[in-house]
What we know:
The chain is mostly helical and 101 residues long. 67% of the residues lie in helices and 0% in strands.
Amino acid sequence: MRKTGSKPTAESASTLALTGLSFLAEDGPRLGRFLALTGIGPDQLRAAAGAPETLLAVLDYLLGDESLLLVFTASKGFAPESVEPSRAALAQSLGIEAARE
């Protein structure tokens, strides 16, 4: 497992989110559900994959489904509790309220 003790930076949060996007893209139905729930089309996703707003949506999506979050973190070697602080760091870099509803 990767370390979780230090506060994530926007850069490390983006890296985690890109890993999450890659994880979603590995499975068609998984990616399809993400696209359907976010309203992002495949072409839009290709164009905006690295955009902070898209990466924030990826982390929100993963955090919204605990079983998916656990599969993601186990398969990629992250501690599940590292995703929320990464989401907060990315949100803060965008000037968005860090707390999720």
